[in-house]
């Protein structure tokens, strides 16, 4: 019984992780499938045709490219803006700070249907046509909130005595920020950037409200393909994105472990 109580939490965690990974494993397996019909839902036979021709389905690589461009641009802009807002909220006291905190959390708490329709009405009222530009602005808007939360949590844990020590040693404010503050806040900034990219790349509801017929992102392509047939290339791209995410996480863990060894 003592052994069970000691390892129960780890066992439950492993089972939960396995359940969460089942859909990803299915996606990987069916990326090597050769279906007879239009739908890739029944295993027929092993094939690498989709891997050798990932752009074989009409329009799939165009939609993927658009999602990547919007996701990368939105994450970069949102990370820059969100980092500045996070430092302002975490380090300074100013009039309207509480209101700013409230406004930051509003996009996170607002249902995406409401947010998407409201942004559509705003863009039409100011004369901005739906399309890639409208999607990009919408993604930046809701990604900023997540970046602020991630970076602000990191800023709150920073020891101000390190910056004070740098100033006592003659470092200028700019040099202190670049050499001390920014490296210490880098994990939070990187987490916010990766989170904003995944949210932008994966978004469907807000994108669907503000897209045009010529601006079909990858999630919209998958939704449309599911109604007339699901090409195996969708599973291939999903597998690549999943493996890339795992590689980034493992790389970050390796870097953290190496830094911990150096400190020790």
UniProtKB/TrEMBL annotation:
Chief place of localization: membrane
Membrane-spanning segments: 7-32, 70-90, 102-126, 132-151, 180-201, 232-252
Record domain ABC transmembrane type-1: where: 64-252
A single GO cellular-component term on record: plasma membrane
Keywords, ordered alphabetically: Cell membrane, Membrane, Transmembrane, Transmembrane helix, Transport
Membrane topology: Multi-pass membrane protein
Subcellular localization, as worded in the UniProt entry: Cell membrane
GO biological processes: transmembrane transport
Family note: Belongs to the binding-protein-dependent transport system permease family. CysTW subfamily.
Identification of the protein by name: ABC transporter permease
Species this chain originates from: Pedococcus sp. KACC 23699
């Amino acid at each position: 019984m003592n052994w069970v109580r000691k390892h129960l939490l780890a066992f439950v965690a492993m089972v939960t992780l396995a359940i969460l990974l089942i859909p990803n494993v299915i996606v990987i397996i069916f990326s090597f499938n050769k279906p007879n019909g239009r739908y890739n839902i029944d295993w027929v036979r092993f094939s690498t045709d989709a891997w050798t021709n990932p752009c074989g389905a009409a329009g799939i690589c165009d939609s993927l490219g658009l999602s990547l461009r919007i996701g990368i641009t939105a994450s970069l802009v949102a990370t820059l803006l969100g980092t500045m807002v996070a430092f302002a909220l975490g380090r300074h006291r100013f009039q309207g700070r509480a209101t700013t905190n409230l406004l930051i959390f509003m996009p996170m708490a607002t249902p995406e249907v409401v947010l998407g329709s409201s942004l559509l009405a705003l863009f039409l009222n100011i004369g901005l046509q739906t399309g890639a530009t409208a999607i990009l602005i919408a993604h930046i808007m809701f990604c900023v909130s997540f970046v602020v939360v991630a970076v602000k949590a990191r800023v709150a844990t920073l020891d101000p005595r390190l910056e004070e020590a740098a100033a006592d040693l003659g470092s200028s404010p700019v040099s202190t920020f670049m050499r001390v503050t920014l490296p210490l806040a880098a994990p939070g900034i990187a987490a916010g950037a990766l989170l904003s990219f995944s949210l932008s790349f994966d978004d469907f509801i807000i994108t669907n409200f503000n897209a045009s017929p010529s601006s079909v992102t990858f999630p919209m392509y998958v939704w449309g393909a599911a109604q007339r047939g699901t090409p195996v290339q969708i599973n291939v791209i999903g597998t690549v994105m999943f493996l890339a995410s795992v590689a980034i996480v493992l790389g970050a863990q390796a870097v953290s472990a190496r830094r911990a060894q150096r400190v020790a």
